[in-house]
Design brief:
This protein has 270 residues and is of the alpha+beta class. 44% of the residues lie in helices and 13% in strands. It has 10 helices and 10 strands.
Length: 270
């Protein structure tokens, strides 16, 4: 992280109730350029057809123009390009591909917001976080299963999670930490932008496009409040024995230990 991001992280860690009212100015040309350099060079182009190689020819000049539009409030998110990839069960998973400049701004925003939310996310969360991987989640599953006297295991996978996120609630959750109007406006543009599917513009009322750079972080913020904190603060205190949650994105495996008065189950959803 940059020095300024480190300071943001320190402030977020010191005070878990702190709100950040002015952080959009940290989306500097340098931050945008670093975000551009971190993108996959062979990634598919969005609806505008701009590739990494094409943008790279005049990268710094392009970044300066992009920053100028952001600063003047003239930046507009472009519709996502919808493609489908086959799943193991024969079905197809819809993936939404943003334009290159949307990827750049989202990546810079992710770096900035992660400095805050990495101080809030719980240890049970392993998906889409810096320095964490699916193997870390599997290792934790193995550790708990082998070393604790587990009585119950409940595996949960939220069907169509990215498409089902309630946007108004997501914004309310973000506002608990971030009150910068320009950042909130950017997030609003990204989650409400339509999708081009077979030449048609489709607009939905829920969700955040799976395939956008910003979506994994937004998905983690949402589940942090509705699942992780709920399990930690509401479920675990009610149980007689120990309980653990291990989550990778929208896949989780809560485990409950037999208590002194017999086994206790964990009910995740009504």
């Amino acid at each position: 992280m940059s020095t300024k991001h480190i300071r943001i992280a320190e402030l977020a860690k010191e005070d878990k109730e702190r709100k950040f009212f002015s952080i959009a100015h940290l989306l500097t040309p340098d931050a945008l350029y670093e975000a551009f350099e971190s993108l996959r060079k062979d990634a598919s182009a969005g609806v505008d057809g701009v590739t990494y190689a094409g943008y790279e020819v005049d990268a710094w000049e392009n970044i300066q123009k992009l920053h100028d539009r952001l600063k003047k409030g003239q930046y507009r998110a472009q519709p996502l390009r919808r493609v489908y990839i086959p799943k193991e069960d024969g079905r197809q998973r819809p993936i939404s591909i943003p334009s290159l400049e949307d990827k750049i701004v989202q990546k810079a925003a992710v770096e900035l917001l992660s400095a805050i939310y990495e101080q809030d996310f719980l240890e049970c969360s392993h998906g889409f976080r810096p320095g964490r991987s699916p193997q870390d989640a599997l290792d934790e599953v193995g550790r708990v299963s082998c070393r604790r006297p587990i009585s119950y295991v409940l595996e949960a996978d939220i069907t169509g999670y990215f498409d089902a996120i309630v946007r108004s609630l997501l914004i309310e959750m973000i506002e608990k930490r971030v009150s910068d109007g320009r950042i909130l406006m950017l997030i609003g543009k990204w989650i409400n932008v339509g999708v081009i599917d077979d030449g048609r513009l489709l607009v939905s009322e829920t969700g955040t496009g799976q395939g956008q750079v910003i979506s994994p972080l937004l998905a983690n913020i949402y589940l942090h409040y509705v699942l992780d904190e709920w399990f930690e603060k509401e479920v675990k205190p009610r149980l007689k024995g120990e309980a653990y949650e291990i989550r990778f994105a929208d896949d989780c495996a809560p485990r409950a230990q037999r208590g002194p008065k017999g086994p206790r189950s964990v009910q995740l959803f009504d």
